[in-house]
Amino acid sequence: MQYLKVKGENLRDHTRKCYAEATLESQLKSKEFWNCNAFKVTVGTNTPCGGDASHGGITLFRLRNLAGTCWSIVVDGTEVYEPDELTIVLEGDAEAETFVNSLIFAEKTLKKQGVKKHALTMAKRV
Questions:
Q1: What is the pLDDT of residues 64-111, one digit of tens each?
Q2: How far, in Å, CA of 40 to CA of 90, rounded?
Q3: Residue 29's beta-bridge partner residues?
C-alpha cells in the first residue's frame, strides 16, 4: 500500500502506519463483479482499535475497473474521468462504522430504485 501524503508529509507517523497497514493487509478481501462492465472490489478493516485515528484503525474500500466501466469521480470539484481505480481510506473506529452505515443506506436506496432488477435484466440480454 502506498503512503498517503499531504503536501509531501505522511499523514501518520511511520511506526503507527506500518503496524496499522500490516494488520489491515491480512484483513483485505476481494471479489470481482462482471456484467457489461467489470469491477474488482477490495475491502477490509482492522477496526475496532479502541478509538480515533491515533489508535491505528484503518478501513479500506477500493474499486478497480477491470473492463468497460464508464464512470467518473469528483473530489473537491475536480473530476477524474474513467479512472483505473478508486481507493477510500478511513481512519478510526467511528469512521469505519459510519462508512458501513453509509454503504448499507446506499445499497437499500439503489435496490429500492430498481438497480438490481435492471442489472439482472441487462445481464440476461448479454
A1: 999 999 999 999 999 999 999 999 999 989 999 999 999 999 999 998
A2: 19
A3: 43
Q: What is the distance between the terminal CA atoms of the chain, rounded to a whole angstrom?
A: 36
Specify the length of the chain in residues. 126
Residue 4 carries which DSSP code? Answer: P
**Closest CA relative to residue 86, chosen from 45, 47, 42:** 42
Look at the pTM and tell me if it is higher than 0.90.
Answer: no
- Report the C-alpha gap between 105 and 83 in whole angstroms: 25
Domain ranges of the chain: 5-125
Q: Which helix (H) or strand (E) holds 64?
A: strand 58-67
Assess contact for 63 and 72: CB atoms under 8 A: no
